[in-house]
Design a protein that fits this description.
The complex is a heterodimer of chains A (156) and B (240).
Chain A lengths: L8 H13 L18 E6 L3 E3 L13 E4 L7 E3 L9 H5 L7 H9 L5 E2 L2 E4 L11 H13 L4 E5 L2
Parallel strand pairs in A: 1-5, 1-6, 1-7
Antiparallel strand pairs in A: 2-4, 3-6
Chain B lengths: L1 E6 L2 H7 L3 E4 L14 H17 L4 E4 L27 H23 L14 H14 L18 H20 L8 H11 L1 H17 L4 H9 L12
Parallel strand pairs in B: 1-2, 2-3
Helix pairs in contact in B: 3-4, 3-5, 3-7, 4-5, 4-7, 5-8, 6-7, 7-8
Classes of the chains: A alpha/beta (156), B mainly alpha (240).
């Protein structure tokens, strides 16, 4: 229902303005992975979630937090700065934005090969996403070194 | 390594140009569609992962199904009565209001076994102190010094305000989750309720007014206001 026509006009105008000013990044190199049933999958989220003891996200933050695969949701908080999304769903079930349990289930069912040892969390709300390039390259390198075949990018 | 992604705001994904994106027709804050609906969430994850084998060139593909809890619904009404907001100060009135919600929030925490309360740095048992801190900022208009209520805050001022609001809203949201009524409230339902009928809404707007007054000399404070008040909820002007 994030059709802009369904939103409060001020919020729709804000999101459209962001879209109009975003820098085109262009797709990366086209990579066809091995079959999903053999692929290890990692989550890269922009929901601003992190472990309770990690440094919180601050406005304009370009850094990331690591979320280990064995994380318990009771250890996670969210310090995303935006006031323009509904937190009640994540409060009820973090999988709605960080589907770690769903990946575990797909692995157990043999639909994917494995779940990454590490997942990565950024805070979105960045008018110019290209500023994440340096951190993104680093995370890509770390994921590849950890044997990850597929990164699933999830917004908030 | 290959990437696939979920897209919520199609216009922004089109502007950026992702390698593979699944556009989903869900509200912001719920990219997998529906809380506590594992089967539906799996269907979204599968659809995003399937792009890896079905797509041969970059692009955005639409997920065909609305979330199960979206559609024509009866109007939402808060099932909990608001306490008489006694007291002269925002801090006292907010404390009176929040005290009605704390036991229900505790019920939700017990049921869930977790809480997102604590983004401000507060411990789980420091809810009353967080409420007091937020109310005191509305009363004093002090945007510089962190409230002294015995909490080791995770943020400096003024960004702390944003997370105090979030922590107090979490108490209210958790209380509602214990007594959801006929259906769960949407983002708009919650904002209508908070900004049209609660002391919390008055407190947030009062603090936003303090930020507005100080923004002439410190323009950055207007951005903080945008992090505190959702768009469309601040005095007929943009929150930012």
């Amino acid at each position: 229902m994030v059709r802009l026509s369904d939103l409060h006009p001020d919020e729709a105008a804000h999101l459209q303005m962001r879209a109009d000013n975003m820098t085109r990044i262009e797709p990366g190199e086209w990579i066809t992975p091995k079959p999903l049933s053999e692929s290890t999958v990692a989550i890269v989220s922009t929901a601003g979630m992190h472990r309770r003891d990690d440094p919180p996200f601050v406005a304009g933050d370009l850094s990331y937090r690591i979320i280990p695969a064995e994380s318990d949701f009771s250890d996670l908080v969210m310090t995303h700065v935006s006031a323009n999304f509904d937190r009640t769903a994540v409060q009820d079930d973090p999988n709605v934005a960080f589907p770690l349990d769903r990946l575990r289930e797909l692995r157990d069912a043999g639909e994917i090969g494995g779940v990454s040892n590490w997942h990565y969390s950024f805070m979105g709300a960045m008018p110019n996403p290209s500023l994440f390039e340096e951190a993104g390259i680093e995370v890509g390198r770390l994921l590849a070194a950890d044997g990850v075949d597929v990164a699933l990018l999830v917004p908030i | 390594m290959a990437t696939t992604s979920i897209s919520l705001v199609r216009e922004q994904s089109e502007a950026v140009g992702p390698t593979r994106a699944l556009w989903v027709p869900f509200p912001l804050g719920r990219p997998l569609g529906s809380a506590s609906d594992a089967e539906f969430q799996r269907s979204v994850v599968r659809a995003a992962l399937d792009l890896l084998s079905t797509q041969t060139e970059p692009g955005i593909v639409d997920f065909p199904t609305d979330a199960p809890d979206v559609g024509e619904q009866e109007p939402w009404a808060c099932p909990l009565n608001l306490a008489p907001a006694t007291g002269d100060s925002f801090a006292d009135r907010l404390s009176a209001e929040a005290s009605r919600f704390l036991p229900w929030a505790a019920e939700t925490r017990r049921r869930r076994g977790r809480s997102l309360f604590g983004a401000s740095g507060a411990a789980p048992d420091q809810q009353r102190e967080v409420v007091q801190a937020l109310g005191s900022i509305a009363d004093s208009g002090d945007l510089t010094d962190v409230p002294d209520v015995g909490i080791e805050w995770a943020f400096e001022m003024p960004l702390l305000i944003r997370h105090l609001v979030d922590d107090v809203r979490t108490i209210y949201h958790e209380a509602l989750a214990a007594q959801p009524g006929s259906r769960a409230p949407t983002h708009d339902d919650l904002n209508d309720w908070i900004f049209e009928s609660t002391v919390l809404g008055e407190v947030i707007i009062a603090i936003a007014d303090h930020l507005t007054a100080a923004a002439d000399e410190q323009p950055m404070l207007a951005f903080i206001r945008g992090f505190v008040v959702p768009e469309g909820r601040y005095r007929d002007q943009s929150s930012f």
